[in-house]
Design a protein that fits this description.
26% helix; FAD-dep_OxRdtase; 6 helices; D-amino-acid oxidase activity; flavoprotein; six-stranded mixed β-sheet; oxidoreductase; FAD binding; FAD/NAD(P)-binding domain; eight-stranded mixed β-sheet; alpha/beta
Length: 340
């Protein structure tokens, strides 16, 4: 790998920031092109609106589970440092319908203190439950930390709106990484029609006494309670159209799932209501590379890393490591072809 390889990462969500940091730390000269950065608020800038905690499906999913495992190990190590905004807490997952597992969940030996909750201790209407130590993310703090780490490592940022990926290819670069999330559907030269928005809504409340993650999953809903390092708690979730009635439903479901939220009070101290558009994709996350020519005929490696839906934080380090692997493989192939 050439120490002089120049990279543009498009997008400054959790995937873009993490990928840029990984590449910068591995000797690349990286610049982030993005319309929105940490501290901004926009319905299409999803990362700041996320829950977020490390959570996975109970059944192993090829490729995806490996990305989640890599990410868990990295997030776990980073959670030793309070400045990251990451925090270790016990997580309780309840399922209304017992999952068809061949044994225990795939991550049993990955996460600390895993146990299956006895049936007698499950909430009414729940058929399966498990608990383990997981990680929550104070999203605003963590995104700022990623950006600061990237800049301190020598990375650069540029606020810009791109209408076509060729605008990045025509810069003085060797590699472009597409981490545009929901914008991958409309970005010229990509226009991936398998990308679609999944609406989400959360309610942020002040409840510093809550020190556990709770998740309940039904046939057509998910309810979650995710404490953050700064004392606020994120309540969710929803897959349909967000509105005030949805917010009221979220609060009702979350206080039933985690009664200590209310501390006997009639009303929770609500800080904000957040609405976001998760970058979903038919077929799952796209992490793949290709070779394109810019307007001057120069070969540019383009690596795509988008379509994470609600798994952006849970897969961020694994996805970034995979993108790095694809880029380095493409560079070696270019070098071999140049010698032939």
């Amino acid at each position: 790998m050439s120490q002089k390889s120049k990279v543009i990462v498009i997008g400054a969500g959790v995937s873009g920031l993490t990928t840029a940091l990984v590449l910068q730390r591995n000797g690349y000269q990286v610049q982030i092109f993005a319309e929105h950065f940490p501290g901004d608020s926009n319905i299409n800038y999803t990362s700041p609106s996320a829950g977020a905690d490390w959570r996975s499906e109970l059944i192993s999913i090829p490729n995806l589970s490996n990305l989640e495992a890599i990410s868990f190990k990295t997030l776990w190590s980073l959670s030793e440092f309070p400045e990251t905004g990451l925090m270790r807490l016990q997580s309780f997952t309840y399922m209304d319908e017992k999952p068809k597992l061949n044994g225990d969940p795939w991550f049993k030996d990955l996460v600390p203190k895993f146990r299956v909750i006895p049936q007698r201790n499950l909430p009414k209407g729940v058929e399966y439950g498990c608990s383990y130590t997981s990680i929550t993310v104070d999203v605003p703090k963590y995104l700022r930390w990623l950006q600061t780490q990237f800049i301190d490592a020598g990375g650069k940022i540029k606020r810009v709106h791109l209408s076509h990926i060729n605008e990045a290819l025509d810069e003085d670069v060797d590699i472009v990484v597409n981490c545009t999330g929901i914008s991958a559907r409309t970005l010229g030269g990509v226009e991936d029609d398998t990308v679609f928005p999944t609406r989400g809504q959360t309610v942020i409340v002040w409840a510093p006494h809550v020190k556990k993650i709770c998740t309940r999953i039904g046939a057509d809903y998910i309810t979650y309670v995710i404490p953050r390092q700064d004392g606020v708690v994120v309540l969710g979730g929803v897959l349909g159209k967000p509105d005030q009635k949805t917010a009221e439903s979220i609060i009702k479901r979350c206080t039933e799932l985690c009664p200590e939220l209310a501390l006997g009070k009639e009303y929770l101290e609500i800080i904000s209501n957040n609405v976001g558009r998760r970058p979903s994709r038919t077929g799952g996350i796209r992490i793949e590379s290709e070779l394109r020519k810019n307007s001057k005929g120069k070969d540019i490696i383009v690596c795509h890393n988008y379509g994470h839906h609600a798994r952006g934080y849970s897969t961020s380090w694994g996805s970034s490591s995979k993108a790095l692997e694809l880029i380095e493989t493409a560079l070696k192939t270019e070098q071999i072809n140049a010698k032939l």
